[in-house]
Specification:
single chain; 163 residues; alpha+beta; Alpha-D-Glucose-1,6-Bisphosphate, Chain A, domain 4
């Protein structure tokens, strides 16, 4: 009985310490990448303004598990994607994961007037709950999501610059 009591108290104290440390980590995680592209703004905009254009430059969009239902809605491997706002410089979408995690994606097209280059900036924002496993797990977002954003933006650059 003593051993069980000691184990329960130790587990409770460990959980409290880990939760307290987790609460010191940020509750919002933003992963952002940008790339310079030498192409007309219109050619880039046509590839990012709807989900059908994403098929050409986002890895995995050509798989059978991807179900595009409209230019603004798709199911990507169980993640529901909805484009919520489109204008000439910003495309905003929400990504709802299988387990209910919600992320907001923003693609910005920035054109500086006296240069032939444009900058495409893509960011994901996720708000986390207080759970320590979410807070500690978010440390991997930068490594995993960041690399995917870099690869996809590089594919977009190659696609629009070759035309």
């Amino acid at each position: 009985m003593r051993f069980i009591k000691l184990a329960l108290i130790s587990f409770l104290l460990l959980f409290i310490v880990v939760t307290a440390i987790g609460l010191l980590l940020p509750s919002t995680v933003i992963v952002s990448r940008a790339i310079d592209i030498n192409a007309p703004k219109d050619s880039v905009y046509n590839k990012v303004k709807n989900i059908y254009g994403w098929r050409e430059w986002i890895a995995g969009m050509d798989k059978p598990e991807v179900n595009i239902t409209s230019p603004t809605e798709a199911n990507l491997f169980g993640t529901k994607v909805n484009i919520t706002n489109i204008n000439d410089t910003v495309i905003t979408s929400t990504w709802l994961g299988r387990k209910g995690s919600l992320q907001e994606s923003v693609i910005r097209i920035i054109h500086y007037q006296n240069t032939p280059q444009i900058v495409v900036q893509w960011q994901f924002t996720e708000s986390l709950k207080w759970y320590p496993w979410q807070r500690f797990g978010s440390m991997m977002n930068e490594a995993v999501t960041g690399k995917q954003l870099e690869n996809n933006l590089a594919a977009l650059k190659m696609l629009v610059e070759k035309k």
